[in-house]
């Protein structure tokens, strides 16, 4: 089975070495500087000062982030999943939650599906963003690893194949879709029996995830901070769920044709 088939079946694929480890190191340097601006008492060399489970950083568009976002290997992989010319290149990678070893949960570890678009242009509450079957305004979710992420380093949890039940949950809602929060609650229940894998890897790896994939953060139980960005890929036009040939579209169409008992959904 090739990586395209795995993406359609499982809802994600890891692009190993999507950008260079040297670029990842440069990104970490910038992010550490931002962390220190936000929390001056935090010392990168002194774990005793890492008192918060997560520090959330804003968007960064410096050169190393542009290099990571536009790397040829990553561009080729996105083209394969979304289609050449069917997505908008990024020059920055959005917000970055930096997770630190902690006995406390950051309170953001619930299973969810990412929101895609705002029904109201004035609505900034992300939990009220919406998702529809055509995945308006979101072609993929990406996980950029800027640091080494092992099993204990707060890797994002991914429910394998969960994008397929979510597609069926969205089918009745039409173009207007459903709000992220109620959809995520239903998706978490509908996919509870599916296997879970961890988004581990080396600096420079990128996970490309179907926009409907159910995923969750978790508490950091390791010994080194974890640096990871999680931007979306913006499509250049609407998806065609009925006739589209990209793996993202094919996965949705196949999911709608499946019988629920084949996906691990609870009855």
UniProtKB/TrEMBL annotation:
Protein name in UniProt: Phytanoyl-CoA dioxygenase
Xref: SUPFAM superfamilies: Clavaminate synthase-like
Organism: Nocardioides eburneus
